Amino acid sequence: MPHLVAAPDKFRGTATAAAVAGAAARAARRCGWRVEEMPLADGGEGSMTAVRHAIGGELRERRVTGPLGYPVNARWLFLADTSGALLPRPLVAGHDPTAVVEAAEAAGRHLVPAPSGDEPLDATTAGVGQLVDAALAAGARQVLVFVGGTATTDGGRGAISALEAAEAVPRRDLRLVVATDVQTRFRTAAAVFSPQKGATPLQSAKLEQRLTRLASHYRRAYGAEVDRLSGAGAGGGLAGGLAAIGGTIVAGFPLVAGLVGLERRLAAADLAMTGEGRLDATSFAGKVVGGVCGALGGTVPVLCVAGEVTDGATHALEGRAAPVEVVSLVERVGRRRALDATTAAVEDVVVAALLRHGVGHRM
User: Fold this and answer.
1) Deepest of 59, 163, 223, 261, by most Cβ within 10 A of its Cβ?
2) pLDDT per residue as tens digits for the range 81-114
3) Architecture category of domain 47-254 in CATH
4) Which one, of 78, 138, 73, lies nearest residue 108 by Cα?
5) Dihedrals φ, ψ of 129, to 5°?
6) For residue 343, what are the contacts with CB-CB under 8 A and spacing of at least 6?
């Protein structure tokens, strides 16, 4: 019986990675294929869910300060014992508890759906610091923070202030790993990302000035040269702030891939399915789709389903070692159905693709 590994990213705004993987799994079963569901993420939203789906853990919740100051309920993942897990470096498997924190839970864009006025300037990461403090209070000795998808550009100052208020830093026995979804530098985070978070050009300039001052402050206070760190601008500079207090910055997707055992699982696959909402050239630069397409040296055939596909994505795929079939839901089923019935459309597209492979039958 042929084997499919369903390893998609989220389709932002329409379907989670887990929902898309589930749709691909239903399609596989309809066609008589074995299937393994493996929702993925690159360090942004959905990263904690991907880890929990693969290695378990206990979801916990704490009421924290949201990005605009009002309280929100945010989840984090507690792994009491990782001695049996194959954790990628710099994480260490053992009997010391590990916590997984997703910054978007406390400071995500979804918590500020329509930013206006001074909100892009005021948005804070204080709640992220409070989640890390909750993890430390529960006994965690290493904390993994996924920083992507925030509504903030505060350079991590809110998170550090919350940790200082709780007397949680400095801690020499804490291993803090900061997983990023971009490689942006600290001071340039405002120019690159704050417009996406609702900032006007004048506000972006003010935020850039703030980050410049913060970089100097982190140098004086902690001896940290955050400007020299690739990825320090991720999460609106949150990555740089956490690095200033001792965190180690790593690329998000390789870390997630290691945690979920991507290459080991793909080695048994006849076909890998991946995808995201909008496929473009950046999808192949440290993102989920590029990682799945390139896994095992690109020797596993890949079906890539996307909400829509740009010309840049087509060019980026040229010369790939393994065959990659790309399907645009917008082109295949129309924009309305692609947006309103994403998972149903994914299921139909995957069924059609599996039948084209000439194995199995529709049940």
Assistant:
1) 163
2) 888 888 888 999 888 899 999 999 999 999 999 9
3) Alpha-Beta Complex (3.90)
4) 73
5) -60, -35
6) 15, 19, 20, 22, 23
